[in-house]
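Problem 12. The chain below contains 184 residues. Write out its predicted structure in C-alpha cell notation.
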Amino acid sequence: MKYKICVSGAAETGHCEKDALEKAKEVGREVARHNAVLVTGATSGIPYWSAVGAMEEKGFSIGLSPAYSERDHVERYRLPVDQFDIIIYTGFKYSGRNLLLTRSADGVIFICGRMGTLNEFSIVFEDNKPIGVLEGTGGTADMLKDLVSKMHRGPGKIVYDTDPKRLVEKLMKLIQKEKEVLEI
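Solution.
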C-alpha cells in the first residue's frame, strides 16, 4: 500500500519566506517521486503548490475540503479544484476537516503556516504520528522546534530539515520504521 503524506501549511502566504511556495512545490514533487500519495486540505497557498509539484511528477493528490459540496468549496470557501485527483467534501468546516486530514495520513509535513497549521500540528503530535518540519519557510513551521521543547511532552516523532528532498527522505524512513513496528 502506498504511504499517504499530508502537507500542511499556510493558505495565505504573505508572511512566509520568499521561497516557501517553491519549496512546497518541491516537497510535492518528492512525495510523488517516492511513490506516495499527497494529501492536503484542498486549499490555496502551501498545500496547493505542493499539489502542483506532485502533479508535475505524475503523482496522485487527494484534497480534503472543509466544504460539503463542490459548489460550497468554490463559492463559499473560494478554494481551488484543479491540481487534485480527488476532493473529498467533508462538510466539517476547518476544524473537523483538519482532524480527518491528519488522521488519514501516515505522516505530515509542515511548511510555513498560521493558526490552522498549528491546529493540525497539535493533532498530529497528540496522535504520535511521524512529522516533518521544513524549517526556514516562516510562520508556524519555524516556531515548532522551540514550541515542542517548551511543552514538556518529549520530542515526538519529528524530523527537521531546510531541504525538501532531505526532509521527505527522513520522513519516509520514519514512516517505514513505524510500519515495521506494526508488522511485528
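Discussion. The CA atoms of residues 30 and 165 lie 6 Å apart. Students who got a different answer should revisit the alignment rule from Section 12.3.
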